[in-house]
Write a structure and sequence with these properties.
There is one protein chain. The protein has 160 residues and is α+β, with helices and mostly antiparallel strands. 52% of the residues lie in helices and 18% in strands. The chain has five helices and four strands. The protein has a four-stranded mixed β-sheet, with helices on one face. Strand 1 and strand 2 form a beta hairpin.
Amino acid sequence: MDRYTMVVSRDDNDTWFAELAEERRCHTWGRTLAATRDRMREAVAVWYEVAPDSFDLREDIRLPDDLRRRLDITLSARDSARREMDAAQAETARTVRALVDAGLSRRDVAYLVGLSHQRVQQILDSPAPPAFSYELPPAPRLTMVAETAAEAYRPESGRP
């Protein structure tokens, strides 16, 4: 599959101007980035006489340096947050399973981890998340509470 790069910049009229890096005579414009991308896809298809979905179109969007830095920082922070959220969800699922395996009720597990009992059941019904290859940092307060609750609900302890 062929790959082309469109170079996009903002002009003085608040419109986006795009030209193909590989063929500067192939160019277009749009009021929004999405419209500019769609129009460039059409322009490339006409220029090279190919189907609009028969090639990859990469975007090189030119922004002032300060805005580019801000955008890069934002995208990096969002990517980090997404990875941390995925890790937190996987760890929550492992913790839910461990607490239930220790004999706690679904409602008590929900109380401990801050979820609804329905969400706890959904987690238990879904496939187990993969194990992480790193050690989680200790969380003494939460560990102590969880161990105390787990001890209280072990059938062999003789307590209800």
